[in-house]
Write a structure and sequence with these properties.
This protein has 3 domains: 14-125, Beta-Lactamase, CATH 3.30.450.20; 139-242, PAS domain (Beta-Lactamase, 2-Layer Sandwich), CATH 3.30.450.20; 255-432, Alpha-Beta Plaits (2-Layer Sandwich). Helices cover 44% and strands 27% of the residues. It has 15 helices and 17 strands. The longest helix is centred in the C-terminal third of the chain and has 27 residues, at 295-321.
Length: 449
């Protein structure tokens, strides 16, 4: 085959394939059409010139140096391969996969050098984007996992390793069920089938750390097929901090910050539950409201910090007076409440507890090296005789407390329906009197002597 047919073949290669021919001194003797078109050059512009002085090598000094080294190596029978950036006719930088091979004669002597290059710009760009994506995923703050169809962990980013306390090599290759104990083989198969149908899913589960600790997690899972294989890509959020925050919010809305006792809201909830249970068991529910007598005098004498110490001490004493499952709550500034359920005769049971409470609260307290005596008054109401819901029991027990305080200190008053029923009459009478006063006026009638 003569040089002309060979050149014609080379010129018909793909536009992304560059081929040339150099003599042993590195002078260009041939370049195919694709190579010339890429830089907008004519054959007479480049042929007969040192290859490293042609436009293909102008963009990078480093590439020119590597070419010179490659020509020397090829002269000794060694091939070279490296990436070369070139500036094409449109001013764009293209990446070429460049090779330089020696050609031998029958005696084994190098007689030609054959440079060739393939345009790999798009491939290198794709590889760069893949590396960038991989870097971004690997350094993302959220934990990410790739799980294959057999439930094996194929990839876990740094955040996932940190969350579970594993080195990456120890985490990859593990069964998902080793990490998520709820994902048994059967559950995993059903989950993957459902995920394939829906495309994505969000669920809450548990994850087992390397030290055995179970932590709550939220999983956002996406189903994809990669090279024909099903894969679950998961973003996993550790819910430990969120759950702690939710529990803290729940605590703050249902417990008193000073005494750590349940507050009025929590007591109402528990009282309603106790009443509902008592309806089916024919039992009794008692509500005692304990009001401290003259707490304002204590605050004046000790300051509010001293008053807080008194409230904490009284809370501890009240809790010690009752037995589980009774509930002791703080429902106001100087008021506490005790709720309990009993199957025995209510009057005898309540009287025993009330006496314990009155005696315990009245025991002297030592606050800031001062001995303080505090007493309390108690109003009580019971289900079903004094009310059938929590609101009614609270109302009647509070009314009883007011009467107890009106009788003096360190007293107890049970709810009296007749007394409670007179409250609306008194309110109506006071309202009528207030209205009548609006129509009255003061006047002076002179008396003449």
């Amino acid at each position: 085959m003569t040089d002309q047919p060979v050149h014609e073949v080379m010129d018909r290669l793909s536009p992304s394939v560059f081929v040339g021919l150099l003599n042993v001194n590195g002078v260009l003797t041939y370049a195919n059409k694709a190579a010339l078109d890429a830089i907008g050059a004519r054959a007479e512009d480049v042929l007969g010139r040192p290859f490293d002085a042609t436009p293909w090598w102008r963009f990078s000094d480093l590439s020119r140096q590597r070419l010179r080294e490659a020509i020397q190596a090829a002269g000794q029978g060694l091939a070279s391969r490296f990436d070369v950036p070139i500036l094409d006719v449109n001013g764009r930088v293209r990446t070429m996969d460049f090779t330089l091979h020696p050609v031998y004669d029958d005696h084994g002597n190098v007689i030609y050098l054959v440079p060739s290059a393939r345009d790999i710009t798009e491939r290198r760009q794709a590889e760069r984007e893949l590396r960038l994506t991989q870097f971004a995923v690997d350094h993302a703050r959220g934990a990410m996992f790739q799980i294959d169809a057999d439930g094996l962990v194929r990839y876990a980013n740094r955040a996932a390793c940190d969350m579970l306390g594993y080195a990456r090599e120890d985490l990859t290759g593990r069964l998902l069920s080793d990490i998520d104990p709820t994902m048994t083989e059967g559950v995993w198969r059903a989950h993957l089938h459902e995920l394939k149908a829906q495309g994505s899913a969000r669920l809450e589960s548990l994850a087992r750390r390397s030290d055995g600790e179970l932590i709550p997690i939220e999983v956002t899972a996406t189903y994809i097929e990669y090279e024909g294989e099903p894969v679950r890509f998961s973003y996993v959020d550790d819910l430990t901090a969120r759950r702690a925050s939710e529990e803290r919010i729940h605590y703050l809305t249902r417990f008193d910050g000073l005494t750590r006792l349940p507050n009025r809201t929590a007591l109402h909830e528990r009282l309603e539950q106790a009443i509902e249970s008592a309806q089916f068991s024919n039992s009794f529910v008692a509500l005692l409201i304990v009001g401290l007598d003259r707490l304002g005098l204590v605050n004046d004498a000790l300051g509010h910090a001293g008053g807080d110490e008194v409230l904490r001490a009284i809370a501890e004493r009240l809790s010690a007076c009752v037995e589980t499952p009774a509930t002791v709550a703080r429902i106001g500034g100087d008021e506490f409440a005790i709720m309990y359920t009993t199957d025995t005769q209510l009057d005898l049971h309540a009287e025993y507890w009330i006496q314990r409470i009155l005696e315990s609260v009245s025991e002297p307290l030592r606050i800031n090296d001062q001995e303080i005596c505090v007493t309390c008054s108690i109003g009580s109401a019971a289900y079903p005789t004094d009310g059938t819901d929590s609101g009614e029991l609270f109302k009647n027990a509070s009314s009883a407390l007011r009467y107890a305080k009106g009788r003096g200190r360190n007293m107890h008053q049970t709810c009296a329906i007749a007394t409670t029923n007179r409250d609306p009459e008194r309110l109506s009478l006071e309202s009528a009197l207030h209205g009548a006063l609006k129509h009255c006026f003061a006047g002076i009638t002179p008396i003449w002597a």
